Amino acid sequence: MKKLFPKSLLAIVLCCSAGIRVSAQNKDTIAPAPDQQPAAGLSLPLGNSQPQPYEIADITITGTQYLDKSLLVSLSGLNVGDKIVYPGGDQFAKAIQALWGQRLFANVAIYVTKIEDGKIWLEIDLQERPRLNNFVFRGVKKSETEELIKKASLRKGSVVTESMKQNAIGIISKHYADKGFRTAVVTITERVDTSQVNAADLVITVVKGGKAKVNDIFIIGNNNIDDSRVKKKMKGTKERTRFTLYPDSEPVWSDSNEVQENYWKTFGFLYPSRTLDQLDPYFRFKLFSSAKFNEGKYTEDKEKVIAYYNTQGYRDAVMVRDTTYTSHNGGVNVSMEINEGKKYYFGNITWKGNSRYNDSLLTRVLGIKKGDVYNQEMLSKRLLSSEGGDIGGMYMDFGYLFFRADPVEIGIHGDTIDYEIRISEGPQATIKEVRIAGNEKTNEHVIRRELRTLPGEKFSRTDLIRSNREIANLGFFNPEKIGMDPVPNIQDGTVDINYTVEEKANDQLELSAGWGGYIGLTGTLGVTFNNFSLRNIFRKETWDPLPSGDGQKLSVRVSSNGKAYRSYNFSFTEPWLGGKKRNQFSVSFYSSYQNPNAYSAYIYGSTLSNSAYFKVLGGSVSLGKQLKWPDDYFTLIYSLNYQQYKLKNYNYFNIPGFNNGTSNNINVKLTLARSSVNQQIYPSSGSNFMVSGQFTPPYSIFNPSRDYKLEAISNQFNFIEYQKYRFNAEWYVPLSRPKGSDNKVFVMKVAAKFGYIGRYDNRTTLSPFGRFELGGDGLSNFAIYDRDIISQRGYPVYYTSDPKQNQENGQPSGYEGFTVFNKYVMELRYPFSLNPSSTIFGLAFLEAANGYRDVKDYNPFRLRRSAGLGMRFYLPMFGLLGFDYGIGFDRIKNGSGLKDAAKFTFMLGFEPE
């Protein structure tokens, strides 16, 4: 065997890799294994040791299992027919380097197997690196494994190299360091997998250790902005709060080591066996934030600090240097040095290129005056922002989709910067095509009729945002997944708009059942189809389970309490009567029956008869029209209503002489409403206003000679007369801005409500129908008497205007209901889930309300007050599920505490008034 390794090549080969051999062997000689051959000190090849040229006659590849041999020959740079010098040439060293550089092999060797007639035969022996067959994580949760595999780019079948393992260790270590595990240790062990040839498994072990906590944040160089303001901007890097308690004194809060060390110097004798490090945990605890150190968040916080300086006029502020190091108690100390630079102010601001709006109007909208503190972020937002109120919005609302505004510094005088804002208005863009995608159930015309962006009209950003709101308020789609994508066509000055939606289930089912002994079957069955299609009612292929897709609403509900009570309700709503305008048409019918003797008959074992009952039969027809003035958020609704009440030996109202008879209530109701909320289930902005008047014919005015005092009460109520007014107002104000993509924000809801019912003529007796009931959860059966139920959390139904006289145990004699009420509500809301399949939010509330027998008794400040907490769950199938725990402050009695003043409220299907 001839060994091919001249001394002239030894240094080159050793530089490539220790342990790589180049040898030659006779055809009949078996070369020792590559890992057994020495790396140096090899003898010269047999025969002529003088370099001679040879032609490569053949090249064979051995030792490979997965790689293409012809490709490997090509990679080596050696080809059949090439002239090489042997020994002494550098072609073999280059070939080894080329193959080794592929990082696919654990060993590379080249053998000369034959030399004859000026030709040379070569064998390239390769030892492939093992292939990754499997990987196992230890010390890692299953939920984290998938993310780590993706981040570290671990793929089965890839070649296992040291570089790959070190790269994975680095990525996994950084992953945990970003989560606060600064001391996390990652090791990777390679083991042979015998189930396959040349395969290996990787065992990845992670020892996380404890999360590092921020001990102190030291800031130097901040001469004009104090530490607290800088630290406040570091949302993801918080100091641990200290609590130092001096004997016989109030607690002292501190954000530095000085107070703690002074404590130790002064009162250390109380703990003679403990050092400062041991005492440290006793003076630190979490307050709303964990103070855990996160490398990624810290990097973001540094950028936020500089951005904050820029908003305060320090546009040259820089972070000179920063460092993090371990403190005496094992926590993390952060030190930052800031160079604030000079504080700048806005100077003169001029405009160039504007023709649509004059300079004075643009300056007024911009809202930046000479001498204001320099703030580049504010300037950019005032020019173009998605939040509204910007100059770009003014232009885009008139079709200038290609609008551009470039603020250019034209002069700096000391600390004052002059700007010239160069505007390129561009052409007005016309809407060319409007496309809708994602509506699998809802017909396209239902969505298209809600859009304010119509082909042929000028583009308007306000119309685009309004279209999004209208689609969301349909309730058929996930409001978080409504997409709006304007696609400008610069060549022809047009724009295409692509809307995307995601359907969500919004039909509702109400089902409950039980058995009440002699009373019989009790329960409720109700279904509401919120996207019904009446025109397809006779097309069987559209039933799933009923025809849908036209945006109509159909509701059917049957409720029974055995022989004591039953009711039937049906309603249908067409939101676009005629299909061309937003004219909402609704029709409803309902019937109810109540037997007051059912329970007593069951208790005393007597036979139930129809000797006493109360029946209600009613219906209504309404038409709502969207107005264009004062704006198109307004709606005017006309409704015609009829109720018939039949009483037989029924003395609920405690009105002498009104136990039997039939009463008819014919009335017209006019409602003016305005709604600008951004969505229905969890509104985070906008408002709702409603004012209504409900009027029966003034029968007493038509017959001035009628003497009501001589008539029986039952005759006066044959045809009921009254005038009734209601006012509701609700505001929703976001208290923070959305962070990330979840859109979760605190929302403040403020509401005020007022109601009044009165007579036309003082000669008449005001009907007990149509009055107001206050307190409770809004689920009272008073609704069958045509009463407005005004709930109040923390209180049961009450019957007196005096907050100190609740009279909660039964209805008092002579009570017919309140004629005036007012209610005020304040809620702080926060969503835990905005998923359309299960919207969940919590709330804290303050509430005040009261009812009054007469206008003379009305006092808007004599109120029952309550406070508490609640939860709301909106499920597509069942609608609203709500829970409130309220404390009525005016129910608190001396010495009883809060126990007797608290009340738990449950709601299902709707939010009570």
From TrEMBL:
All residue ranges annotated as the POTRA domain in the record: 130-209, 213-341, 344-426, 430-504
UniProt keyword Transmembrane helix present: no
InterPro entries xref list: BamA/TamA_POTRA (IPR010827), D15-like (IPR039910), OM_assembly_BamA (IPR023707)
Keywords of the record: Cell outer membrane, Membrane, Signal, Transmembrane
Short name of any one Pfam family annotated for the protein: POTRA
An example Gene Ontology CC term for this record: outer membrane
Signal peptide (from-to): 1-26
GO biological process: membrane assembly
Name this polypeptide is given: Beta-barrel assembly machine subunit BamA
The species this protein was found in: Chitinophaga ginsengisoli
